[in-house]
Protein backbone atom coordinates (compact mmCIF):
# COMPACT_ATOMS: atom_id res chain seq x y z
CA UNK A 1 0.00 0.00 0.00
CA UNK A 2 1.54 3.25 -1.11
CA UNK A 3 0.30 6.80 -1.42
CA UNK A 4 0.65 8.68 -4.64
CA UNK A 5 3.11 11.36 -3.61
CA UNK A 6 2.95 13.28 -6.86
CA UNK A 7 -0.69 14.32 -6.44
CA UNK A 8 -2.14 16.50 -3.71
CA UNK A 9 -5.29 15.45 -1.84
CA UNK A 10 -8.43 17.06 -3.09
CA UNK A 11 -12.09 17.34 -2.21
CA UNK A 12 -14.79 15.49 -4.05
CA UNK A 13 -18.37 16.68 -4.32
CA UNK A 14 -20.47 13.56 -4.85
CA UNK A 15 -23.33 15.08 -6.75
CA UNK A 16 -21.21 16.31 -9.64
CA UNK A 17 -18.63 13.63 -9.69
CA UNK A 18 -16.27 14.69 -12.39
CA UNK A 19 -17.16 18.26 -12.97
CA UNK A 20 -16.42 19.90 -9.64
CA UNK A 21 -19.23 21.62 -7.81
CA UNK A 22 -22.44 23.22 -9.01
CA UNK A 23 -24.90 25.17 -6.94
CA UNK A 24 -27.76 23.73 -8.98
CA UNK A 25 -27.05 20.17 -7.85
CA UNK A 26 -27.34 21.26 -4.23
CA UNK A 27 -30.48 23.19 -5.02
CA UNK A 28 -32.12 20.14 -6.55
CA UNK A 29 -31.04 17.91 -3.74
CA UNK A 30 -32.36 20.21 -1.04
CA UNK A 31 -35.62 21.06 -2.75
CA UNK A 32 -36.37 17.45 -3.64
CA UNK A 33 -36.86 16.61 0.01
CA UNK A 34 -39.49 18.81 1.61
CA UNK A 35 -39.75 16.82 4.80
CA UNK A 36 -36.62 18.53 6.05
CA UNK A 37 -38.22 21.92 5.67
CA UNK A 38 -41.40 20.96 7.45
CA UNK A 39 -39.40 19.60 10.33
CA UNK A 40 -37.47 22.83 10.59
CA UNK A 41 -40.67 24.83 10.52
CA UNK A 42 -42.09 23.10 13.52
CA UNK A 43 -38.95 23.78 15.51
CA UNK A 44 -39.14 27.42 14.60
CA UNK A 45 -42.82 27.99 15.13
CA UNK A 46 -43.04 27.01 18.75
CA UNK A 47 -41.13 29.19 21.12
CA UNK A 48 -41.92 30.17 24.68
CA UNK A 49 -41.47 33.87 23.95
CA UNK A 50 -44.05 33.74 21.21
CA UNK A 51 -47.70 33.85 22.28
CA UNK A 52 -49.49 30.57 21.65
CA UNK A 53 -52.12 32.02 19.36
CA UNK A 54 -49.36 33.44 17.18
CA UNK A 55 -47.65 30.07 16.97
CA UNK A 56 -50.90 28.34 16.15
CA UNK A 57 -51.57 30.87 13.44
CA UNK A 58 -48.11 30.31 11.96
CA UNK A 59 -48.55 26.58 12.17
CA UNK A 60 -51.84 26.70 10.30
CA UNK A 61 -50.42 29.16 7.82
CA UNK A 62 -47.47 26.95 6.86
CA UNK A 63 -49.74 23.97 6.41
CA UNK A 64 -52.16 25.98 4.34
CA UNK A 65 -54.95 25.48 6.86
CA UNK A 66 -56.02 29.10 7.25
CA UNK A 67 -59.46 30.00 6.03
CA UNK A 68 -58.46 31.87 2.94
CA UNK A 69 -61.14 32.18 0.33
CA UNK A 70 -59.60 29.50 -1.85
CA UNK A 71 -59.63 27.10 1.09
CA UNK A 72 -63.21 28.02 1.85
CA UNK A 73 -64.09 27.34 -1.75
CA UNK A 74 -62.40 23.95 -1.61
CA UNK A 75 -64.71 23.10 1.27
CA UNK A 76 -67.69 24.47 -0.67
CA UNK A 77 -68.40 27.12 1.89
CA UNK A 78 -68.31 30.01 -0.54
CA UNK A 79 -69.10 30.17 -4.21
CA UNK A 80 -66.68 30.36 -7.10
CA UNK A 81 -67.40 34.02 -7.67
CA UNK A 82 -66.51 34.95 -4.11
CA UNK A 83 -62.96 33.62 -4.14
CA UNK A 84 -61.18 36.81 -5.22
CA UNK A 85 -58.72 38.45 -2.89
CA UNK A 86 -60.17 40.69 -0.19
CA UNK A 87 -58.14 43.66 -1.41
CA UNK A 88 -59.97 43.69 -4.72
CA UNK A 89 -56.78 43.09 -6.69
CA UNK A 90 -58.58 40.46 -8.75
CA UNK A 91 -56.42 37.46 -7.94
CA UNK A 92 -57.60 34.27 -6.30
CA UNK A 93 -57.11 34.52 -2.56
CA UNK A 94 -54.76 31.65 -1.78
CA UNK A 95 -52.47 31.55 1.22
CA UNK A 96 -49.49 32.20 -0.95
CA UNK A 97 -51.18 35.15 -2.62
CA UNK A 98 -52.49 36.71 0.55
CA UNK A 99 -49.23 36.55 2.49
CA UNK A 100 -46.58 36.89 -0.18
CA UNK A 101 -47.51 37.90 -3.66
CA UNK A 102 -50.53 40.19 -3.24
CA UNK A 103 -49.44 43.69 -4.21
CA UNK A 104 -51.25 45.26 -1.28
CA UNK A 105 -50.00 42.99 1.48
CA UNK A 106 -46.52 42.34 0.17
CA UNK A 107 -45.85 46.01 0.73
CA UNK A 108 -45.98 45.22 4.41
CA UNK A 109 -42.90 43.04 4.12
CA UNK A 110 -40.76 45.79 2.74
CA UNK A 111 -42.04 48.15 5.42
CA UNK A 112 -41.09 45.67 8.10
CA UNK A 113 -37.68 45.18 6.58
CA UNK A 114 -37.11 48.90 6.52
CA UNK A 115 -38.18 49.07 10.10
CA UNK A 116 -35.68 46.46 11.28
CA UNK A 117 -33.11 47.71 8.80
CA UNK A 118 -32.40 44.78 6.51
CA UNK A 119 -32.70 44.32 2.78
CA UNK A 120 -33.33 41.16 0.85
CA UNK A 121 -35.39 39.56 -1.86
CA UNK A 122 -38.44 37.66 -0.66
CA UNK A 123 -38.83 34.07 -1.78
CA UNK A 124 -42.21 33.37 -3.34
CA UNK A 125 -42.78 30.14 -1.48
CA UNK A 126 -44.31 30.72 1.92
CA UNK A 127 -42.22 28.12 3.75
CA UNK A 128 -39.01 29.52 2.35
CA UNK A 129 -40.23 32.99 3.15
CA UNK A 130 -40.84 32.08 6.75
CA UNK A 131 -37.47 30.42 7.20
CA UNK A 132 -35.52 33.13 5.49
CA UNK A 133 -37.24 35.81 7.50
CA UNK A 134 -36.50 34.10 10.78
CA UNK A 135 -32.86 33.47 10.04
CA UNK A 136 -32.52 36.95 8.75
CA UNK A 137 -33.78 38.47 11.96
CA UNK A 138 -31.65 36.20 14.09
CA UNK A 139 -34.26 33.84 15.46
CA UNK A 140 -36.44 33.79 18.51
CA UNK A 141 -37.68 37.19 19.57
CA UNK A 142 -38.08 38.85 16.23
CA UNK A 143 -39.98 35.90 14.92
CA UNK A 144 -43.16 37.44 16.23
CA UNK A 145 -42.88 40.36 13.83
CA UNK A 146 -43.66 37.89 11.18
CA UNK A 147 -46.99 37.08 12.70
CA UNK A 148 -47.97 40.48 13.99
CA UNK A 149 -48.49 41.58 10.45
CA UNK A 150 -51.28 39.18 10.00
CA UNK B 1 -9.69 24.70 10.96
CA UNK B 2 -12.50 27.23 10.90
CA UNK B 3 -14.72 27.79 13.87
CA UNK B 4 -17.60 30.12 14.49
CA UNK B 5 -17.13 32.94 16.98
CA UNK B 6 -19.99 32.05 19.28
CA UNK B 7 -22.86 34.41 19.88
CA UNK B 8 -20.98 37.45 18.70
CA UNK B 9 -20.47 36.39 15.11
CA UNK B 10 -23.04 36.87 12.40
CA UNK B 11 -25.96 34.55 12.26
CA UNK B 12 -25.26 33.90 8.62
CA UNK B 13 -21.77 32.72 9.35
CA UNK B 14 -22.95 30.51 12.19
CA UNK B 15 -25.41 28.94 9.78
CA UNK B 16 -22.59 28.21 7.34
CA UNK B 17 -20.65 26.47 10.07
CA UNK B 18 -23.71 24.53 11.11
CA UNK B 19 -24.13 23.25 7.57
CA UNK B 20 -20.51 22.20 7.41
CA UNK B 21 -20.70 20.41 10.74
CA UNK B 22 -23.99 18.79 9.85
CA UNK B 23 -26.28 19.97 12.64
CA UNK B 24 -29.93 19.03 12.89
CA UNK B 25 -32.83 20.93 11.36
CA UNK B 26 -32.81 22.63 8.01
CA UNK B 27 -29.20 21.95 7.21
CA UNK B 28 -29.13 18.33 8.31
CA UNK B 29 -26.23 16.26 7.17
CA UNK B 30 -26.53 16.90 3.49
CA UNK B 31 -23.22 18.67 3.15
CA UNK B 32 -21.05 16.25 5.05
CA UNK B 33 -22.63 13.26 3.37
CA UNK B 34 -21.83 14.58 -0.07
CA UNK B 35 -18.17 15.33 0.24
CA UNK B 36 -15.17 13.07 0.39
CA UNK B 37 -11.44 13.28 -0.11
CA UNK B 38 -9.54 11.89 -3.02
CA UNK B 39 -6.23 11.01 -1.51
CA UNK B 40 -3.01 11.71 -3.35
CA UNK B 41 -0.04 12.24 -1.07
CA UNK B 42 -2.24 12.11 2.03
CA UNK B 43 -0.87 15.37 3.41
CA UNK B 44 -4.22 17.09 3.65
CA UNK B 45 -6.54 14.31 4.76
CA UNK B 46 -7.27 13.13 8.28
CA UNK B 47 -7.04 9.37 8.54
CA UNK B 48 -9.95 8.84 10.93
CA UNK B 49 -12.34 11.73 10.55
CA UNK B 50 -12.25 12.65 6.86
CA UNK B 51 -14.25 10.55 4.45
CA UNK B 52 -11.69 9.05 2.08
CA UNK B 53 -12.28 5.28 1.90
CA UNK B 54 -15.55 3.41 1.68
CA UNK B 55 -17.89 6.41 1.67
CA UNK B 56 -17.85 7.25 5.38
CA UNK B 57 -15.08 8.37 7.73
CA UNK B 58 -13.23 5.47 9.33
CA UNK B 59 -14.08 7.03 12.68
CA UNK B 60 -17.73 6.35 11.92
CA UNK B 61 -17.33 2.92 10.39
CA UNK B 62 -14.87 1.73 13.02
CA UNK B 63 -16.11 3.81 15.90
CA UNK B 64 -14.65 1.46 18.48
CA UNK B 65 -11.18 1.60 16.98
CA UNK B 66 -11.30 5.36 16.68
CA UNK B 67 -12.22 5.67 20.35
CA UNK B 68 -9.28 3.48 21.27
CA UNK B 69 -6.78 4.98 18.86
CA UNK B 70 -3.89 7.04 20.14
CA UNK B 71 -3.45 8.75 16.75
CA UNK B 72 -6.86 10.38 16.45
CA UNK B 73 -5.74 13.46 14.54
CA UNK B 74 -3.19 11.85 12.26
CA UNK B 75 -3.03 12.59 8.57
CA UNK B 76 -3.24 9.73 6.12
CA UNK B 77 0.36 10.39 5.15
CA UNK B 78 1.49 10.13 8.77
CA UNK B 79 -0.39 6.88 9.32
CA UNK B 80 1.20 5.35 6.25
CA UNK B 81 4.59 6.54 7.37
CA UNK B 82 3.94 4.78 10.69
CA UNK B 83 2.97 1.68 8.72
CA UNK B 84 -0.55 0.34 8.34
CA UNK B 85 0.46 -3.27 7.69
CA UNK B 86 -0.23 -5.86 10.35
CA UNK B 87 1.46 -4.82 13.59
CA UNK B 88 2.39 -1.46 12.05
CA UNK B 89 3.11 1.56 14.21
CA UNK B 90 -0.07 3.26 12.99
CA UNK B 91 -2.17 0.91 15.08
CA UNK B 92 -1.45 2.18 18.54
CA UNK B 93 -4.18 1.80 21.12
CA UNK B 94 -4.93 3.14 24.53
CA UNK B 95 -5.10 -0.39 25.87
CA UNK B 96 -4.68 -3.96 24.69
CA UNK B 97 -7.32 -4.91 22.17
CA UNK B 98 -9.81 -7.71 22.68
CA UNK B 99 -10.16 -10.39 20.02
CA UNK B 100 -13.24 -8.74 18.62
CA UNK B 101 -11.36 -5.48 18.26
CA UNK B 102 -8.40 -7.18 16.61
CA UNK B 103 -10.94 -8.48 14.14
CA UNK B 104 -12.02 -4.90 13.45
CA UNK B 105 -8.44 -3.87 12.76
CA UNK B 106 -8.13 -6.69 10.25
CA UNK B 107 -11.34 -5.55 8.62
CA UNK B 108 -10.09 -1.98 8.47
CA UNK B 109 -6.76 -3.05 6.95
CA UNK B 110 -8.59 -5.16 4.41
CA UNK B 111 -10.59 -2.11 3.38
CA UNK B 112 -7.38 -0.13 2.88
CA UNK B 113 -5.80 -2.95 0.86
CA UNK B 114 -8.85 -3.18 -1.36
CA UNK B 115 -8.79 0.51 -2.06
CA UNK B 116 -5.14 0.53 -2.92
CA UNK B 117 -5.53 -2.40 -5.27
CA UNK B 118 -8.01 -0.25 -7.16
CA UNK B 119 -5.58 2.67 -7.24
CA UNK B 120 -2.97 0.47 -8.87
CA UNK B 121 -5.15 -0.89 -11.63
Structural descriptors:
heterodimer, A: 150 residues, elongated, B: 121 residues
Task: Walk me through the structure.
The complex is a heterodimer of chains A (150) and B (121). With 150 residues, chain A is mostly helical. Helices cover 51% and strands 3% of the residues of chain A. Chain A has one domain. Chain A has eight helices and one strand. The radius of gyration of chain A is 21 Å and the shape is elongated. Chain B is mainly alpha-helical. Chain B has two domains: 35 residues, no CATH class; 63 residues, no CATH class. Chain B is built from five helices and one strand; from the N terminus they run αβαααα. The chains are: A mainly alpha (150), B mainly alpha (121).
Taken together, the total number of domains of chain A comes to 1
Order of helices and strands of chain B: HEHHHH
Largest sheet of chain B: none
> How large is the share of residues in beta strands of chain A?
under 5%
Helical run tally of chain A? 8
As for the number of domains of chain B, it is 2
Q: Tell the overall outline of chain B.
A: elongated
What is the CA-atom radius of gyration of chain A, in angstroms? 21 Å
Percent helix of chain B, as a range, is: 40-55%
Structural class of chain A: mainly alpha
| Total number of beta strands of chain A | 1
What is the mean predicted local confidence, pLDDT of chain B?
83
Q: State the end-to-end distance of chain A.
A: 65 Å
User: Largest inter-chain interface?
Assistant: A-B, 27 and 29 residues
Total helical segments of chain B: 5
Mean pLDDT of chain A: 72
How big a fraction of the residues of chain B is strand?
under 5%
Taking the sheet with the most strands of chain A, its summary is: none
Q: Give a count of the beta strands of chain B, DSSP E runs of length 2 or more.
A: 1
Amino acid sequence: MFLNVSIADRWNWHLDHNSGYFVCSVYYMLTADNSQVVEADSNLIWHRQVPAEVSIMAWRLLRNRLLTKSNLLARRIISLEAQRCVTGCGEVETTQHLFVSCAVFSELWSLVRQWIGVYEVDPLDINQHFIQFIYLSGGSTKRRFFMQLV
Amino acid sequence: MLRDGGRRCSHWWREVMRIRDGGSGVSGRWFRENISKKVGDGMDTLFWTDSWVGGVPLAVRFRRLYDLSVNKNCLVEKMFAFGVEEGGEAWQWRRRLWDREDELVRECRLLLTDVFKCFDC
